[in-house]
Amino acid sequence: xxxxxxxxxxxxxxxxxxxxxxxxxxxxxxxxxxxxxxxxxxxxxxxxxxxxxxxxxxxxxxxxxxxxxxxxxxxxxxxxxxxxxxxxxxxxxxxxxxxxxxxxxxxxxxxxxxxxxxxxxxxxxxxxxxxxxxxxxxxxxxxxxx
Length: 146
Hints:
Elements: H1 32-59, H2 66-79, H3 85-89, H4 92-109, H5 114-128, H6 132-145
Helix pairs in contact: 2-4, 4-5, 5-6
């Protein structure tokens, strides 16, 4: 027996592969979601800002009025000792500046405190010139304005 030889062509013929079935295309995105997200962000932002504003208005007391500023300036003037050359150069000048600022704020809010602000300013100016006699005289006048 020998090798079998094929005398005829194969009976199978070539055919292309079946077409690929792709999944269906996704539905187009809805347009409502971006608008909904923007509206939600706006509402949340307004709540945060409004809550912060409301919270700070509850935590912070109202600003003092001119009478409170004048009373604080008078307390400082009343606590100041008599001026000497040594004391003018130390911390009393800072306290005197504070009293001057408070009395000026009181005068800006109410004209009745203008004389207190002027007297306090004169005390400060006399102390900066290192004239202790004039500073003590002006301090007595400023305390009288209280």
